[in-house]
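My main concern about presentation is that the manuscript never shows what a single data entry looks like. An entry of this sort, consisting of the sequence and the corresponding backbone structure tokens, reads as follows:
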Amino acid sequence: MDRFDYINGKLFAEDVPVAKIAKEVGTPVYIYSKATFLAHLTKMQEAYAELDTTICYSIKACSNINILKFLAEAGSGFDIVSGGELYRAKQAGADMSKVVYAGTGKTDSEILEALEAKIGYFNIESEAELENIIKLAKKSGNKTKAALRVNPDVDPKTHRHTTTGKKESKFGVDIERARKVFAKYGNNDAVELNAIHLHLGSAGKTVDPYVEAIKKTLVLIEQLRSDSFKIDTLDLGGGYGADYETATAPTAGHYAKDIVPLLKGKGLKLILEPGASIAANGAILVTKVLYLKKGGEKKFVIVDAGMNDLLRPPLYGAFHFIWPADVEEAFVPEKRKKELSMEGTEVVDIVGPICEGADFMAQGRSLAPVKRGELLAIFTAGAYGYTMSSNYNSRPQLPEILVDGDKFTIIRKRQTYEDLIALEK
């Protein structure tokens, strides 16, 4: 699953003790495993090798350019959703022909920058957006390709904030309306509309919604082809599950086992936009225990990481396995689950220092005994961890550390108080 393992009761990131990094860099701190990122990318590349497939890693999941660089070197393209992410892709040395641009509110300046960069595809979210991209492409003299995002009205049954494939979504157009969009815009001379884009949502737990969506979309593609439109690419988006709990999400191979047979012989290139399935297990957030407290019947473990550092638990009710970085051998977890029936554990709330009742990492969670000053590791923190962090409560953002074998590098420095107000002077 990842390269964060206990050896003699001590947690290692690849071949580096987590405690060593925390001692040198301080806490809280994000620690990434290069080998884990690359392993998940490779598994996806191999799983879909039978098809003409481009993997476009979703930058929004984890966007440090040092990580993007080694992913690009390993053959990954990129899924972007802003001008800032386009800039990051450029700085990482990305192949622009393997960049796809999604998002409902692309500004004129962002569109022009992407046209100038000659990205591979725009994912079209609305007719109004398509009209605007056609206008700007003609104005700039830069022709481009585009995929119409359709909503197949399939529910992946994830959190309501991460479900995007229903008719009621702000993203894309109803699958029934797609033929009308192609009839109106499919033969313009500035934007080649030759692809269909799907994205059901995030944190998928089963393959079935993708199979249902693909079957519906293949019917649409045949209809469009019968209308004399050349559709040669299908972008299945992302949302593929990651193991926040051990063995709870399909692997890349499991997804491909059901998806590849549906697409073989269909004359379609395939684009995938994985984010969490590559990044999530690639990082831990390490935090230090500040205080232990009782409140009524509750026990609290107060740590130095807050909701500004990891927003997913209060925002999505997301589960992250949390465990001490140094434990007795009897407390080394075999699996990372919500409920661990280990003798000697205590049920606690793990909370941070932010002045908000929603500032928690876990509630009602079994935890091995800890003391003030000890380290806790918050697992599966690579996706939407640092990228959703903020300076709320005027807290400096955290350093990011990249581990490669037995070496580690600071790939983002910890913000200072001076950094906090630098743009306000």
